[in-house]
C-alpha cells in the first residue's frame, strides 16, 4: 500500500469494531490475528508494517493489548473519537452478555448449580494454560524464571495490592540491572511505516499526549483519596478497576489477582470468591476482550438499575487508562521503543506478571474451585481440549459447563 488512507468516520470505525467484537473469540493473540485480517487485508486501513509497529506499542503498555491496538487503529482512521468508536464496538457485545449474566446470577440462586461449578473449573484450566504459555516466552531463562517464582511467593505472602505492586517494581529494577546491555532487547526499526500510514502528529499532538499522561497520573492519585473521603462503594469499585487497568501487564488474565485482592471478601461492596470465579469462567465463553469481566463485577455488586450503573462505571474505569496511556505514548513511541533500558525493565516486569498469575491460579482460583477428584478430572479434560486439541476457549468452557451440570 503506497498511499495514506483517507480519513474515516466514527460510525465506520464503530461498525467495523462491532463486527470484530461479535466474532473475535480466543483471547488477545487471536484478536490480533482477527484485526490483521480485517484492518490490513480486507479494509486496507494500514500497512503490514504499521500494524506490526502498533502491535509492538500495545504490547509495551499496560492494559488490554488487543483493545489498545483497536484504539490505535481507530485514532489513525478517525482521530481521537475513533479510539472511542473502536473500543465501544469491540467491547459492547461481551460487556452486555456479562452484565446479563451478573443480573441473572444475582437475582436467581444459581451459585450452587453444577454448570456454574463447571465454569469455575474452566477458569482453572484457562489460567493454568495462560501461566504455562506465558512462562515459555516471558520467563524462559534462569534469571526471569527466578523472578517469576519470587513474584509468585510475594503475591501469596504479602496481603492486598502491595502483593502485586511490590514484585512488579522489584522485578522492573532487577530487569533494568540485568538486561540493560543485553542484545535480547534489541533496537527496533524506524517507524517509517506508521508515520507514512497514520500521521499521528495530526491527531495526537505532544500537548495532548502530555495532558493525557497527566490525567492518567492524577486519576491514579485522586481516586483512592476520594474513596477515603467519601466512603462510596461505587468510587471504590472504580478505583480498583482503574488501578487494575493502569498497572497490569500481560493481558486480561493478569487482572485477576489485583481485582480479587480488593473486591473479594466479606462486608459491604464485597463479592464472594465463588461469585468472582464464576464470572471469570463465564467471560471465557464470550468474544471480545477479557477486561469486560469488569462489567460482570460491577453488575454483581449491585441490584436493579444500580447494577447497570456499577457495570458501566467499572467498565469505563478499567479501560480509561488504556486510552490515556495510548494517547500519551503515540507521539513518543519511536524514542521509547529504541530505548534498551526501558525494554530491559519491561523484561523484568513481564517475568513478574507470570509469577503474579501463578499466584492467582493457586489463590483464589484453585482453592475455590477444585475441591474433589471429579473437579480435578474436569480441569484436566478442559486443559486437554485447549492445549492438546487446540479447541477455542468458548468450546472448552461449554464442555466444562455441561460436564458440571451432568456430573456435579
From TrEMBL:
What topology in the membrane does the UniProt record assign? Multi-pass membrane protein
Entry's transmembrane regions: 84-106, 118-135, 147-179, 209-229, 308-332, 344-363, 369-389
Matching Pfam families: Chromate_transp
Q: Where primarily located?
A: membrane
- Where does the protein end up? Cell membrane
Is-annotated flag, keyword Transmembrane helix? Answer: yes
Does the keyword Endoplasmic reticulum feature in the UniProt annotation?
A: no
Q: Which keywords fit this entry according to its UniProt record?
A: Cell membrane, Membrane, Transmembrane, Transmembrane helix
Q: Which family does it belong to?
A: Belongs to the chromate ion transporter (CHR) (TC 2.A.51) family.
- NCBIfam families linked to this entry: 2A51
The identity of this protein, by name, is Chromate efflux transporter
Give the organism the record lists: Paenibacillus oenotherae
Amino acid at each position: 500500500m503506497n498511499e495514506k488512507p483517507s480519513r474515516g468516520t466514527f460510525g465506520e470505525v464503530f461498525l467495523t469494531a462491532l463486527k470484530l467484537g461479535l466474532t473475535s473469540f480466543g483471547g488477545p493473540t487471536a484478536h490480533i490475528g482477527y484485526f490483521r485480517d480485517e484492518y490490513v487485508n480486507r479494509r486496507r486501513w494500514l500497512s503490514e508494517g504499521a500494524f506490526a509497529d502498533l502491535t509492538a506499542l500495545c504490547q509495551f503498555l499496560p492494559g488490554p493489548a488487543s483493545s489498545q491496538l483497536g484504539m490505535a487503529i481507530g485514532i489513525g482512521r478517525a482521530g481521537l473519537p475513533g479510539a472511542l468508536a473502536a473500543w465501544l464496538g469491540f467491547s459492547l457485545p461481551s460487556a452486555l452478555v456479562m452484565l446479563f449474566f451478573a443480573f441473572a446470577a444475582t437475582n436467581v440462586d444459581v451459585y450452587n448449580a453444577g454448570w456454574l461449578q463447571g465454569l469455575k473449573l474452566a477458569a482453572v484450566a484457562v489460567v493454568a494454560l495462560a501461566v504455562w504459555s506465558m512462562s515459555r516466552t516471558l520467563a524462559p531463562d534462569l534469571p526471569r524464571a527466578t523472578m517469576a517464582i519470587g513474584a509468585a511467593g510475594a503475591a501469596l505472602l504479602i496481603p492486598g495490592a502491595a502483593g502485586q505492586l511490590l514484585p512488579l517494581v522489584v522485578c522492573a529494577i532487577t530487569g533494568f540491572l540485568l538486561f540493560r546491555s543485553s542484545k535480547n532487547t534489541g533496537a527496533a526499526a524506524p517507524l517509517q511505516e506508521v508515520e507514512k500510514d497514520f500521521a499521528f502528529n495530526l491527531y495526537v499532538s505532544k500537548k495532548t499526549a502530555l495532558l493525557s499522561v497527566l490525567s492518567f497520573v492524577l486519576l491514579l492519585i485522586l481516586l483512592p483519596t476520594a474513596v477515603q473521603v467519601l466512603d462510596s462503594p461505587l468510587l471504590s469499585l472504580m478505583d480498583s478497576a482503574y488501578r487494575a487497568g493502569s498497572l497490569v501487564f500481560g493481558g486480561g488474565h493478569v487482572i485477576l489477582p489485583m481485582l480479587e485482592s480488593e473486591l473479594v471478601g466479606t462486608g459491604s461492596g464485597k463479592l464472594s470468591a465463588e461469585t468472582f470465579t464464576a464470572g471469570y469462567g463465564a467471560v471465557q465463553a464470550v468474544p471480545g476482550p477479557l477486561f469486560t469481566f469488569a462489567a460482570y463485577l460491577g453488575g454483581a455488586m449491585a441490584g436493579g438499575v444500580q447494577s447497570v450503573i456499577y457495570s458501566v462505571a467499572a467498565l469505563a474505569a478499567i479501560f480509561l487508562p488504556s486510552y490515556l496511556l495510548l494517547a500519551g505514548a503515540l507521539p513518543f513511541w519511536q524514542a521509547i521503543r529504541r530505548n534498551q533500558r526501558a525494554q530491559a525493565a519491561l523484561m523484568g516486569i513481564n517475568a513478574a506478571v507470570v509469577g503474579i498469575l501463578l499466584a492467582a491460579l493457586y489463590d483464589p482460583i484453585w482453592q475455590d474451585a477444585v475441591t474433589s477428584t471429579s473437579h480435578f478430572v474436569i480441569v484436566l479434560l478442559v486443559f486437554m481440549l485447549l492445549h492438546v486439541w487446540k479447541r477455542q476457549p468458548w468450546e472448552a468452557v461449554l464442555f466444562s459447563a455441561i460436564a458440571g451440570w451432568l456430573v456435579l
